[in-house]
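Notebook, student rotation project (T.W.).
Task set for the rotation: take a protein with a known small-molecule partner, predict the structure of the complex, and write up what can be learned from the model alone. Partner molecule chosen: pyridoxal-5'-phosphate. Sequence and SMILES entered below by T.W., checked by me.
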Amino acid sequence: MKVEFYKHSLGQEEKEAVNAVLDTIFLTTGDRVALFEKQFAAYLGAKYCVGLTSCTAALHLALIALGIGPGDEVITTPMTFVATSTAILHTGATPVWVDVESDTGNINADLIEEAVTPKTRAIIPVHLYGQMCDMRKIRQIADRHNLVIIEDAAHAIESERDGIRVGELADIACFSFYATKNITSGEGGAITTNSQALAEKIQILRLHGINREAADRYTKRYEHWDLIETGWKYNMDNIQAALLLPQLRKIDENLQKRQELYNTYTKALQNISGLQMPVETPDSRHACHLFTIWVDPQFRDKILFDLQDQGIGVAVNYRSINLLTRFMQLFGKGRGSFPVSERIGDSTISLPFYPLLTPEQTNYVIDTVISTIGKYKTGKE
Ligand SMILES: Cc1ncc(COP(=O)(O)O)c(C=O)c1O
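Predicted structure of the complex:
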């Protein structure tokens, strides 16, 4: 049997939405983007949303808009995708990693304060796999040291913890609509914020630093525009927004399907020796973006390749990023620097996890994972 690692659920509604844009003459940032921004902000209970081309762009502009640059330090996690830290580097600031919790893989809030120096300006928590970090605690630390918070919510649109929604306690939250994310436009991203000034600044920075959007120039009588900042080209377009709008309407329905799958996997895999899973945080809503298992590090790669040989798509989210070549060159934080993150990075495997997975495929994944782990544990490979 073949089980893809990921399959999107885009169908007729999304095709019609894109076709409707293609039937107009306006393809770039316009009315579809404005509508998506309004509805996405409403879904999250945020005041403002700005549509962008990726979460990487969102993180970059969030940092720039908050005035972070050369000489500044930004506290974040090594258990994430590289973009969380490369966005910091693009501003000229330095990422300062803090180790993670052993049961969730999220940044360990109890270790953040030790990493604060006079140069620290911001914290970027990442809600790994869709489980929220302890935002109440992180906000308190930030307030004590006069730091801003940018949430990397690439996995976490639907997340909630202790009655707090994702982005609620942040200065800016950043989202991804990359090909495998909970809602997707192939590539895409957004920020949310409750600050009008930050939203307006990011709106200008996403389009070169020009003080007027293309839609204004198209729909209104010509007026000269001006360049008022040195910006980037990070604006979401109407085609991306059209693709996202129907998915936003179905976001909770699709979450429920992934929650059911999450429960099926968890129940079937919870008492298997040689296999652990991240623990669910109480009083929280998990966005169920990725389903990961943790196996014995000495067998991880063998199990990973063996599952692939048996037709199961897998991924590794993530190897601890301090150990990647470029970050080793820059910071030299070798093995032992972040023991918990490194242990997770050495043992993790992500399994196929999406609403279109059939019960037969789900059972095949479960049976194959159990038998494959058993094989290596008993040395009968
Ligand atoms: C945690 C995290 N942060 C940031 C990103 C970057 O997102 P994008 O691909 O939209 O730039 C990703 C993407 O996979 C991610 O998983």
